[in-house]
Design a protein that fits this description.
CATH topology of the largest domain in chain A: Dihydrodipicolinate Reductase, domain 2
Number of helices of chain A: 16
Helix content of chain A: 25-40%
Mean pLDDT of chain A: 92
Radius of gyration of chain A: 22 Å
Distance between the termini of chain A: 21 Å
Low-confidence stretches of chain A: 1-30
Oligomer: homodimer
CATH class of the largest domain in chain A: Alpha Beta
Shape of chain A: globular
Strand content of chain A: 15-25%
Largest interface: A-B, 51 and 51 residues
Strand order of the largest sheet of chain A: 14-13-12-11-7-10-9-8-15
Structural class of chain A: alpha/beta
Number of domains of chain A: 2
Chain lengths: 464, 464
Amino acid sequence: MSQNIPRRDFIKNTGLAGLSVGLSVNTIKAFAPEQMTKVRLGMIGVGLRGQSHLEMLLGRKDVEVVAMADPDERSLASARQLVAKSGKKAAVEYGKGNTDYKNLLKRTDIDAVLIASPWEWHIIQAIDAMNVGKIPGVEVCGAIKLQDCWDVVNTSEKTKVPAMIMENVCYRRDVMAVLNMVRLGMFGELLHLQGGYEHDLRGVKFNDGITPYNSGVEFGPKAFSEARWRTQHSVDRNGELYPTHGLGPVAVMIDSNRGNRMSKLSSVSTKSRGLHRYIINHPKGGPNHPNAKVKFKLGDIVTTQIQTTNGETIVLTHDTSSPRPYNLGFRVQGTNGIWQDNHAGEPNAGLIYFEDKSKPHTWENTKSYMDQYDHPIWKRFDKEAAGAGGEGGMDFFVENAFIECIKRKTEFPLDVYDLATLYSITPLSEKSIIEGGQVQNIPDFTRGKWQTRKPIFCTGHNDY
Amino acid sequence: MSQNIPRRDFIKNTGLAGLSVGLSVNTIKAFAPEQMTKVRLGMIGVGLRGQSHLEMLLGRKDVEVVAMADPDERSLASARQLVAKSGKKAAVEYGKGNTDYKNLLKRTDIDAVLIASPWEWHIIQAIDAMNVGKIPGVEVCGAIKLQDCWDVVNTSEKTKVPAMIMENVCYRRDVMAVLNMVRLGMFGELLHLQGGYEHDLRGVKFNDGITPYNSGVEFGPKAFSEARWRTQHSVDRNGELYPTHGLGPVAVMIDSNRGNRMSKLSSVSTKSRGLHRYIINHPKGGPNHPNAKVKFKLGDIVTTQIQTTNGETIVLTHDTSSPRPYNLGFRVQGTNGIWQDNHAGEPNAGLIYFEDKSKPHTWENTKSYMDQYDHPIWKRFDKEAAGAGGEGGMDFFVENAFIECIKRKTEFPLDVYDLATLYSITPLSEKSIIEGGQVQNIPDFTRGKWQTRKPIFCTGHNDY
């Protein structure tokens, strides 16, 4: 690979790309040896989120950022500076419009791409990447349409190129401690889980075109960064638009697609008020600002009930247009205990209760449990994760998993079926809301393989 | 009334019973004068809950407990002792089986009845009471079948006898402070609300036939108190079996049946594990205990999504079979703020946030808000409520409203339409779960009157 073996030959020779399809966890050795020492990476999308990934990946000795694509010159310039600052070789740039990433994909010196582009490009670019033998790591969002989810699965199965969904909250320290407690059986049999994206994004969805956050009421072409593209989704769509941060960790805990399956959902939405209100109350907005006339379709709070084949239920909340403290609202409840998260992942900010440990009917603070059951992977990589920064160290883990699995030719812990399943929540929730909350079937993207696939996310076999 | 005017003449002469049908809030004078100085009461059901009401009502000078009905001699005996202890005249007893309450209802010296019987009797007895001109105050639960809800409404409209649902949590001190804040506009326009009955009732659903709580694994005929009848509902039914404590306060805040209406619901249920597990793990149970063979239909956690005509959404949780601290799980969220309740109503145990008051993106403790916005009715009756005891003073308020509204011939703050609406959640949720979570329409029990009815619950006009 890093010795310039053409990519397609690599795929053929090593069979790496087939891992996510055919390999069972039993055949994976713990800490499988490296098959390649360096991953040659292309970045697709180097906006603020892509730059955050880029900065961390530049710090890795086992990553070479060969090229990067972004139609926005300001983003490319910032990314270029990050590469220069790192002392590494300049990355080849592809900045000629939205489709120049296709030229990046034509390179023969790239093994994988990290996709951190606007939502509507994720699946298109992931599919394009797999079709030319590049392994995509795909940032999170929801699918634009349900067929996208099938297309990404079908392409991966056809090309035998794996894909990973870069869901970092699965690696949040308190979430992983709770996962550890779940697997130790401390909660008993799981019954009910909750999660969400409850994050006041109004200052992200609008800006002044220069400063990305809290600077104005523009969106679309007059805005910068996420407000340029993300906000239009709130104009055009009403649904669970950002399901993965809340649902990804829960999906891991219930062994989604690995012995269990999320099978049905039903979504409801409140009226839409927050974004309009933000515009008319903002010092740079007001009732006469042109954007005060925009009708936002996205309800302020969207709630989704999910049923699983194993009999758990999940409540997922999307809440990004209202004033509120950040809280992903996790709840994990089983026959022996319950965890309730009300803050932003601080170890001492949750409530927990175990029948065989706690004073009857009385919440305990989470701190001592978070310390005692800190997941082994966090103990192992504490220094690297903390040193690397990036959303409380979570980004270190999700990038590390992506890179190490490629190097070691082992299965991704969050694979193309997880990608399709988590992404599918969005179009299914939109359809449910249009139908007044009617239940939608969640497709089985594994086509039955969920019944025999074994849990793999940080199970001790392949802990990246 | 207390001068032995026959009940039916009273109804005819005063028109009291028509209040809930025809009277608008505008015609009610603040602190309407008493039309009668004493309410002559019959108790139907004097188990532990009925005795709690009885004890408080015996402390009131404006209540005369004339009679009481209960088929259980042990309950009657305890109630008899409470009356004796109060120094008041002994109540006439009706203890000959389940239908002896009908003889109590034949008395001409009773104005009203308080119904605290097993769930399956509430609507039957309320209808029987109205049909003989007695005003029922009905303890909370959910309906056995949807038609019950129509029957109670139709009977009240036909007889012109009002009915009150005795939902005490509407009067919880923190809940009323939040209601106060809602009405002061502090939350902005309401968007999303949550509530539930999240209460580990395993030690209530089973006992040893002698001691009511935490004493064994019997239910049905071999058990005492609630375990004798309540647990069978967990065998026979899967749904939101106890909706009113979580939903009542929320319904008041959104002006349910008074300018707004809960219009649709969808329910999902987890598997059923907790009650079986309790039996097999209990020292008096075990895997060979006969009750270990019982199949419980009730899922451990039932979640219900509710939509309203005004565009709010509500999530309601029923969670009574798992180890967990008590928490009704209230959340009130509007365009300007959010309240999250995680404990049992302690003023300093919640989280709150207002855009125009709080440090950005940061929860505040609720204490200072609960103190500052303590509802005027709690300030007014603080001494009586605290002195009376009874579930944190809530019972004082719900009883006081029942008695004072009868004395003053004013509308009940929680009327027959609220009773029908809140009770209807149960059979509708059962149907939804049977249909895999499909949406059910919640009937308009007001037959359109919700569009013009004005809020009345502690609005300052008639604050009981």
